[in-house]
Amino acid sequence: MAGPAARRQSVGVNVGGVMVGGGAPVVVQSMTNTDTADIDATVRQVMQLARAGSEIVRITVDRDESAAAVPIIRDRLASMGYDVPLVGDFHYIGHKLLTDHPACAEALAKYRINPGNVGFKAKRDTQFATLIEIANRYDKPVRIGVNWGSLDEELLTRLMDENAASDTPISAAAVQREAIIQSALLSAQRAEELGMGRDKILLSTKVSDVQHLIAVYQDLAARCDYALHLGLTEAGMGSKGIVASSAALGILLQQGIGDTIRISLTPEPGGDRTTEVKVAQELLQTMGFRQFLPVVAACPGCGRTTSTTFQTLAKDIQDHLNTSMPEWRERYPGVETLSVAVMGCIVNGPGESKHANIGISLPGTGETPAAPVFVDGQKVATLRGADVADQFKTMVADYIERKFGS
Ligand code: SF4
């Protein structure tokens, strides 16, 4: 069976106890959208994201009040048993905030630095050096996170001028990609000159266009061995953001590129922030890189389905498995490897059910009103009656207890 390319060799970085790169499984991370100075709201959202499976959570640190809140947030989370590493997202005044708030510098597990906006241009070098010196002092890793929306204009202008004077000019888009990559690599080089180890540096080069993102990361991956954080920036809302992120990140991951991912979705007003974590998990799981949740295989249904029972059952089973996972992870070790099939008729039902740990084939049009159930490839029962769905759910629960219970 064809599989993904070998993982790109990268230098592993320990982010508050979570290994990123160096052969570690691809890490899922996310970011809050609360005002970090609002301690209650931020603690609540970090907990939601961590419970959903975010292994690292980034929070905005944009002013004194948010910097002062960080250690309180970290301590409050720890007191409730949440030790998810917190990453501080700094722009413009990170050097000042980290200097003025040593407790914040100590509480964070990593600093995100945007080389395109480290302070005022004239003082950029010294302010970047301040950030790195503080990271060295507190033994913290950094992510040098370039974003084409806030690219170093000076660097871009210089590369554009050089390209214009070249005998073999490249496209403007290619120059822009080169500026993004150089911004990341030159900053990483400068951090190393300031005494930072390679095992303390992650890079990201985010753009919002799928093809550019793939090209920029392929190039970056070939030119260094720093651990890479993947993300399509400003991916957008709903299915557009999910499809664009999955297409871009899926291709890179298949090529062995990427050590941690964030899916940047714009939530619906009042929407659930944890969707980005679920999408990241599903992307990694569906590609076979990691296993987070049991899989429910269900057919799409067609004119052969006699009712919506199978759709309802498939949804019920998926919802039940998803909501039970936080509790089951401890109670039923390995339960995330479970596969369940819920099929609408005899055409593909028995075959698909046999491939799952436990599967049911509901009766289609013209079929005998009976639903065969397969367990580990063997037919074990034929369910009948109006409560077929409940009978099957009980069988799934019994199977989980038998297979994964201690
Ligand atoms: Fe239609 Fe049956 Fe195929 Fe489901 S398994 S899509 S009901 S033919």
Automatic annotation (TrEMBL):
Protein name listed in UniProt: 4-hydroxy-3-methylbut-2-en-1-yl diphosphate synthase (flavodoxin)
Source species: Devosia subaequoris
Family: Belongs to the IspG family.
Location of the IspG TIM-barrel domain: 13-281
Swiss-Prot/TrEMBL GO biological process terms: isopentenyl diphosphate biosynthetic process, methylerythritol 4-phosphate pathway; terpenoid biosynthetic process
EC number: 1.17.7.3
UniProt lineage: Bacteria, Pseudomonadati, Pseudomonadota, Alphaproteobacteria, Hyphomicrobiales
Pathway: Isoprenoid biosynthesis; isopentenyl diphosphate biosynthesis via DXP pathway; isopentenyl diphosphate from 1-deoxy-D-xylulose 5-phosphate: step 5/6
Catalytic activity: (2E)-4-hydroxy-3-methylbut-2-enyl diphosphate + oxidized [flavodoxin] + H2O + 2 H(+) = 2-C-methyl-D-erythritol 2,4-cyclic diphosphate + reduced [flavodoxin]
Cofactor requirement: [4Fe-4S] cluster
Record's keyword terms, sorted: 4Fe-4S, Iron, Iron-sulfur, Isoprene biosynthesis, Metal-binding, Oxidoreductase
Coiled coil: none
Domain IspG C-terminal: 296-397
Function of the protein: Converts 2C-methyl-D-erythritol 2,4-cyclodiphosphate (ME-2,4cPP) into 1-hydroxy-2-methyl-2-(E)-butenyl 4-diphosphate.
GO molecular function, one term: iron ion binding
InterPro entries linked to this entry: Dihydropteroate_synth-like_sf, IspG_bac, IspG_bac-typ, IspG_C, IspG_TIM, NO2/SO3_Rdtase_4Fe4S_sf
Binding site for [4Fe-4S] cluster: C299, C302, C345, E352
Cofactor details (free text): Binds 1 [4Fe-4S] cluster.
Keyword rRNA-binding on entry: no
